[in-house]
Amino acid sequence: MKRWMLWGAALLTAAACNTVELSSGSSPSLFDIDAPGELFGPLAQEITYEVDCDRSWSVRLKDGSWATVGRRTEMSQTRMSLKLALTLNLGEEERIDSLLFTSGSVVKRVAVKQSGISAFVSSRTIDLSAGPQTLTITAPDAWTFTVPASASWISLSAESGLAGITVMTLKATDANENVGARSAQLTLSCAGAQIPIQVTQAQTDAIRTVGELWEFDYNGGTFQVDVLSNVDVEVDIPDEAASWLTLLESKALDNSTLTFLAAPNRAFQPVSATVTLRGGSVERSFSVTVGGFARVMEESSLGVFDLTPGTDWTYSEGIDQISRHYGKGTATFSLRNPYEKAYWSLTGSFSDPGATTVDAVLSYLLSADGEPASQTLSLKVLHRSGNLVWLQGDGTPGFIIKL
What we know:
- This protein is mainly β and 403 residues long.
- The chain contains one helix and 33 strands.
- 2% of the residues lie in helices and 51% in strands.
- A hairpin with a 5-residue loop joins strand 22 (245-249) and strand 23 (255-262).
């Protein structure tokens, strides 16, 4: 016969029973009850009581809502065994009933208590949102877990075990970046009982983008950012970029395409911004950069040829300007404008690396035989790269000199 692990293993003898003398009727000379304990585990089980009585006797449960009095078996002329069946207690609270044995004028009361389900399994609801969780099983017999195929996202450190105490771990195999929470019902089986264990995991807010950096030349352009998310997404463009970066349109939030326009950059230096996508408890950022003219000058062909002292070179953008330069910090060169057939020369000191403006004298002839004239210019230093300097004057084209 299979033995059950019983909570509260101390035997209760007849002396531990509550005895009530009735007001009338005769009493038995022998009336003892041996109980296998008072507190039992929460699983369904059958309890055996042995009764010694030299007269006829009866028994009933005071409540009887979760236990049932079963068969009697004669063991001797005075001794009989009595079976009491307990149902599974899925509640957390201990429940109590009483067996009332009556013989003649004597009633003996035997307490019957059954532990809540936590005495068998520490919890029947497990939330994996905060990470792995432990579960303690105190089993009277071998046990097994049944995990449905739909719950492949749940990992158990053990799916079966023997009688005794087992501490196991449950964890999620991923962070649940799905839309909404997920749940599954596991079944813990032991001694014929099947205990449902509910496992849940809240969604982890997620925003994913394809690409983290968009770079353009000074012309700017439109670009699309593919966004995968399980939350509503808010687009945050910093105030300082509002004049040149615009969100044009977006589609569905769970799988969206955000279209942006980066306007042309007329400044000499590049502009950049970090765009932030926010939703739920998560955010994701990407960067946008639109180059300035300095970058164009450094990274593209400038139309500058053979920069050695005394040779000719041509300014970029196709303007037919031939100039001659000389080193040592002072540049004197001539510019020929084919439209006016004028001859120009520019003299100034450009070697100070900290200078932002340079005062220069522009001398010119409207024709080869014309009268010379001159004009003082304040030239803005646009950019320096190595020994090259880019200059710009009001109403004049740019000048590039080599120091």
